[in-house]
Amino acid sequence: MLQVNNLHYTKSRHVILRGLSFKIPSHRTVALLGENGVGKTTLMRLISGLIEPNPHSDIMIDGKMGAKIKANLSYVSTLDWANNYDRVSDIVDYFKMGYPDFNEQRMEELIKFMRIDRTKRIAKLSTGTIEKLLIALTISRDTSVYLLDEPFGGVDVLARKKIMQSLLHWLPEEATVLVSTHYIQEIESLVDDAIILKDGRLLAYESVEKIRKEEGLSLEQYYTQLYIEDNGGRE
Ligand SMILES: Nc1ncnc2c1ncn2[C@@H]1O[C@H](COP(=O)(O)OP(=O)(O)OP(=O)(O)O)[C@@H](O)[C@H]1O
């Protein structure tokens, strides 16, 4: 379970997140939605402990806080830390050595599934292939929470659909998954709930099924409607 209480984050006097609170139970996959610059990446970096929130903000995973949550969380946002001469197989080796919960067999299956050439140097990989590798590394760990930040930005449409459809199949059943994306229509069938951010605050945290059944809307229609309403009717 991932719990965020009263999360505030200010950077260079610019308030980015203003008092976010939500709780995502285990066995739930949640889309994190919001316009460019709203703070989705910032939220993921805060959850993962890469940056520090303002005082009196709490982030808990399975009841743990602070540095202790790192073991229960999988988030790989970049390969900037790797050496340009590293090959895909070297990165896999680093993960094998660095994470006791790294599932080597799952990683091998994902490499095949995503058609990643394990002999290629990182510096020679295309943007989309790096994104596929980041997804594969993230979901090859056995943790309770998975954060995927705009994982499909550069992935071609066929691969994206294929990966999306099978994403949950690779993860432990009880996993909590938070995935940020602008591909709202495509993610809709994958997620249970959606968190919608606007102006640094939580505009909605709603079940996708409820949006469909009770509001009669698709997730994208619901998102657009909420944004327009919050803008006082302006698009
Ligand atoms: N290092 C930084 N210094 C100052 N401001 C920053 C820094 N990084 C991000 N920001 C600001 O924080 C805000 C949130 O950025 P963030 O990247 O979290 O948004 P996002 O919702 O992920 O956007 P996108 O959908 O475009 O990826 C933006 O206004 C951005 O300009």
TrEMBL record:
Q: Which is an annotated GO molecular function term of this record?
A: ATP binding
A Pfam family reported for this protein in Swiss-Prot or TrEMBL: ABC_tran
Database matches in InterPro entries? AAA+_ATPase (IPR003593), ABC_transporter-like_ATP-bd (IPR003439), P-loop_NTPase (IPR027417)
- According to the record, the signal peptide region is none
ABC transporter domain mapped to chain residues:
2-224
Question: Which of UniProt's keywords are assigned here?
Answer: ATP-binding, Nucleotide-binding
TM stretches of this protein: none
PANTHER family (alphabetical): ABC TRANSPORTER, ATP-BINDING PROTEIN, SKFA PEPTIDE EXPORT ATP-BINDING PROTEIN SKFE
Task: Report the protein name in the record.
Answer: ABC transporter, ATP-binding protein
Protein source organism: Weissella paramesenteroides ATCC 33313
What taxonomic ancestry is recorded? Answer: Bacteria, Bacillati, Bacillota, Bacilli, Lactobacillales
